[in-house]
Design a protein that fits this description.
The complex is a heterodimer of chains A (about 675) and B (about 170). With about 675 residues, chain A is of the alpha/beta class. In chain A, strands 1, 3, 8, 9, 16, 17 and 18 form a seven-stranded mixed sheet that branches. A six-stranded mixed sheet of chain A has the order 10-14-15-13-12-11. In chain A, helix 1 (about 5-30) packs antiparallel against helix 2 (about 35-55), helix 1 (about 5-30) packs antiparallel against helix 4 (about 80-100) and helix 16 (about 600-605) packs parallel to helix 17 (about 625-635). Chain A is flat, with a radius of gyration of 35 Å. In chain B, the strands form two sheets. Chain B has a six-stranded mixed sheet. Chain B has a five-stranded mixed sheet with strand order 3-6-7-5-4. Chain B contains three helices and eleven strands; from the N terminus they run H-E-E-E-E-E-H-E-E-E-E-E-E-H. In chain B, about 20% of the residues lie in helices and about 40% in strands. Chain B is of the alpha+beta class. Chain B is globular and about 45 Å long. The chains are: A alpha/beta (about 675), B alpha+beta (about 170). The interface of A and B includes residues 482 and 524 of A.
Amino acid sequence: MSRDPFRYFRLEARELVDRLHAGLLEIDRGGGGSGELVRTLLRAAHTLKGAARAVRQRELADHAHAIEDALEAFRDTGGVSRAAIDALLPRLDDMELRVRALGRPPEAEPSAAHIVIPAAAPAAAPAAPAPVFEDERALRAEIGDMDIVLDGVAEAHAAVGTLRRLAGDLEQAHRLAELAIDQLAPRAGDRPGEHAHTTATQLRGAIGAIDRHLGAAIEKLDRELRGVRDAAEQLRLVPASALFTALERAARDAAHTLGKLVRFDHLGGEVRLDAHLLSAVQPALVQLVRNAVAHGIEPPGDRERRGKPREGRVAIEVERRGRRAAFRCRDDGRGLDAAVLREAAIRRGALAPSAGALTAGALAELLLRGGMSTSSTVTEIAGRGIGLDVVRDVAARLGGKVELITAPGSGAAFELDVPVSLTSFDALALEDAGTIATVPLAAVRRVLRVPPGDIAATPEGAAIAHDGALIPFLALRAVLGRPSLPRTGAWSAAVIEDRGRRIALGVGRVLGTATVVVRPLPELAPCDPVIGGASFDADGAPQLVLDPAGLVAARPRALDAAPARRPRVLVIDDSVTTRMLEQSILESAGYQVDLAVSAEDGLARARTGGYALFLVDVEMPGMDGYSFIEQVQRDPQLRDTPAILVTSRASAADRARGREVGARGFIAKGEFDQGALLEQIARLVA
Amino acid sequence: MTGHAGEIARAFDADFARPLAPRAANREDMLAIRVGDEPYLVVRGELAGLFADKPVTPLPGGPPGLLGISGFRGAVIAVYDLRAVLGVGGTAGGDAPRWVVMAAAAPVALAFDRFEAFLRVPGDAIAGHSGAAAGHVRRAAPCDGELRPIIDVPSIVAAIRARARGEP
């Protein structure tokens, strides 16, 4: 038995209570719900009852039983009455508290004394406790995400099992090798050949089998572990929709209390954000929703008289904007009356009587100070002020800001804009001049092929025609500040849009889409705002994530319209494979490449002049790479031409010797990295 | 990372994973390193790890000395070039510094060209500046027959923080 006997029950019970909560609110929205939906909730209540009994949680089982009893009458017909829903929701609140308290010290347990289950509709004020879950564990990951992690772990574990078996086979091969050595040892009057041949054959077979299976097992383990890592990263991220049930409940409770009709809408539930962030903003959003219902939405009669639908609308919209996330609470109520608020503020001494008309910013600041009412008539509820100081505190704690958009008569929108710590989205991966970066797919409008002739040089920088408009053209290499040559061929370009502004981002290649988990840049690495964050590539190296807002604000640079000067690089290597590989990399990056098959051949070519750089193999028959560089250093005509050594020997001593003879760079064949090679070359020939 | 460098890094990882033992009386553990070709020492207690050949992703528009970012144990960390921070000229041309140490006091890594040895220096062999502290070097200790300056990592971190805030 685990030390926490409720570990699994807590997970299951939370899931079921959530399902019941969301289902009841859906029924309420849909005017009573269908029989099918009721049956789904009955199944959830029944499962919860059984599970609660199994772990001897009688109160929870009784609650679940009561919910079953209440819903049973609507099993076939649907049409659950509002009174029935009103009676059930407080039960769910109590269940939620009890589940959260399970396994905690006794003093944290909820006692019957402060849990009140009203028989009729609640008459609480909007500020009464609503299901606000400050505990981030309430905003937990989705079961599906956890399943992916668990599946991955199971697969990885299976792969470890294969490796363990192979280790056994290796031991067997080792024993066979010992035997073969023993049998091959010369002994007087013995004929070792036959036995030794048999043993050696077995040994070959054993090693061959290990060779075949080991590579495959490692490959599989690597793949599975990468999958686990990706899925585990996703686990920290929770869809913003996890907030909506509690917010809808807050809207519903406030509307009931105040006799208003309110429809709750939401947008952006698919945006995945760090659970800690969602937990932190939830109390602020609950306050904004209550505030919208209490002070924004008019009573049904008033709305009708103003020509509005009787039912008011409160909406929560979640949007990710590069390094930030915006949570907007919008209502279609009466809006904020700046003049009334100004008078109230003057009465309270919060504003000097001489103060002029309030701007939206000043209005927001005044409201966020707390103690102010947006209501033009002071009732008991409105007169207490609107508690927007909760919103201000949350914004301050998260390093965010609050904005207000309002027009009298047509509603108000408060926007809480906060920096994100971790987020995940689909991204388009782009490659240019050996560097890969990603850009949020949601901001990509189109991908184009742009021949050099389609790029216009305007006084504001390079631009292309797109959809009948001239839009700035930025090369990714320039955006990233990477030293490189001007591109000679056609570009691929992604058209990126942010808040109505577009740019074309020119790249060498469009690699495809991927889901990326994006981390913020460290505080000690400030950089150009075109970078929105970083994700890790398959090898754990950071890959830059571009920020659409930063990109559209970046100043386009003029592209070098003149025919490109193409520096010549001399590649010296005795291996045809290496020569061809280097030639293809360099030519695709715009260099002219000449080849030499030995250091002697290279020296003869070098003396013909005109080279910007030598790329030299170290180990060659005859003169080696070190000696080649020594010769170059002795030649006054050549000594200024930089040389980079390429070698499979990459020890510190090799590097030291390279530096000693005058090499300006060092590329290890084992770690051959196209981007690093091009970057070193570009730096040296610049 | 293979061979000797790998062994050294692994040994250091194991060492850094252990809790820091109380400083032996009158002894300080140090790393002998080269920044460019210049010899220096750094105090092991001011560091959280030593790594070789970490891929560093350059960032556009960063402050002077910022090489870029790198991944360390699942976190993205800023990497600064000690050559630039200390004002030491590099002689290795196009070679990026190969080694990095993580500072213990802040999430920042410092890159340098060569790691040479791990030393235990007697306290009485360490010489402090007699006058006001100068730059990022306030002490020196003998190593291989020469007196090596000891880099003050917290002072470097403070300078990097100032650079990151855009202060000169």
